[in-house]
Write a structure and sequence with these properties.
Blueprint (H helix, E strand, L loop, with lengths): L2 E4 L2 E4 L6 E4 L2 E11 L3 E7 L5 E7 L6 H17 L8 E7 L2 E7 L3 E2 H4 L6 H20 L2 E2 L8 E4 L6 E4 L6 E2 L18 H6 L4 H17 L10 H9 L2 H7 L4 H9 L11 H9 L23
Helix pairs in contact: 3-5, 3-9, 5-8, 7-8
Length: 302
């Protein structure tokens, strides 16, 4: 079993077959299904043989109290914001100096579905569900700040797909303010106002939502994934994402371009406004389900 050295403790990290104890029962850890700088997500089977997604908060050489605070904050947010398109929390517990959250198990993530353009009717339905969740959070004064393909989960994939927003680890309560300065940001989804001015707003979530739509609409990201940070920052500050969306020459691309404007004041001002423009493009519901791509596309498309 691999370990983390934190302070005076050598902490064993779970592997497949590890059994973790909670006041609500035992969780048997399965395969690792997601991994990031500050957390890992495992398949697991919990009480009553129910499958879950188990998120472990990674120490990453940080103080115990800091990791505990992040765990408590995300647990509180997930418990507070109940919505059909937000992932559901079932349990939260500490085991051997590590912190866990047991979440509903979804079929897949958007990361596994992108790689080919979505038909417009499918993209718009996924967007509709995501916008409902974003509007709910914004109405409650919460900015998610981490909207990307790995944090959008999908259930009922083979029948009527249900989109779920997950991972509130860097979200922020505005508390009457219109902006805040985040302590942590995902470099792959930086927004122009964060790059140039160091702040984030509700419209920053809409910019990140625009990046999601761009990828679903085209099959590839708005920026090359291997671009150096300095070059990426320059492209973001110069509004390259909007220019690429405008260059698509499609109705959906025009909506994306407005979401990706450099100045947050000139973007859509709410998720509801975005939907007003997308809904007129909606076709009759389709039974099409995006296939899992057999290979990843490069950037830009060849």
């Amino acid at each position: 079993m691999t370990s983390w050295q934190t302070g005076q403790h050598l902490i064993p990290v779970p592997v497949s077959g590890t059994v973790l104890a909670s006041a609500r029962g035992a969780y048997q850890v399965g395969e690792l299904i997601g991994d990031g700088q500050y957390g890992s997500v495992y398949e697991c089977v919990g009480p009553f043989d129910q499958p879950y997604a188990l998120k472990m908060f990674r120490p990453a050489n940080r103080a115990y109290e800091l990791v505990k605070h992040e765990w408590q904050a995300e647990m509180k947010r997930l418990e507070s914001y109940r919505h059909p398109h937000i992932v559901y929390i079932h349990d939260a517990f500490e085991h051997n100096h590590l912190f866990y959250i047991a979440l509903e198990r979804c079929d897949t993530s958007l990361r596994r579905l992108v790689g080919a353009p979505f038909p417009d009717e499918v993209l718009i339905e996924y967007a509709r569900q995501l916008l409902m969740a974003v509007a709910y959070l914004h109405d409650a004064g919460l900015v998610h700040s981490d909207l990307h393909v790995g944090n959008v989960l999908v259930s009922n994939l083979k029948s009527q797909p249900t989109v779920k927003l997950s991972d509130f680890g860097v979200s922020h309560q505005l508390d009457g303010q219109h902006w805040f300065r985040p302590q942590v940001a995902n470099p792959k989804i930086l927004t122009p106002e964060l790059v140039t001015m160091g702040y984030t707003t509700r419209q920053s979530d809409l910019y990140q939502f625009g990046l999601l739509l761009f990828r679903m609409h085209t099959g590839y990201p708005a920026f090359p994934e291997d671009v150096p940070y300095q070059e990426l920052s320059r492209l973001i500050a110069e509004g390259a994402a909007r220019q690429r969306a405008e260059g698509l020459g499609t109705a959906v691309g025009n909506v994306i371009a407005k979401l990706l404007r450099r100045r947050d004041a000139y973007r859509y001002q709410s998720a509801r406004e975005v939907w007003q423009d997308l809904r007129v493009l909606r076709q009759p519901p389709a039974s099409y389900v995006p296939p899992l791509p057999s290979s990843r596309r490069g950037w830009p498309p060849g």
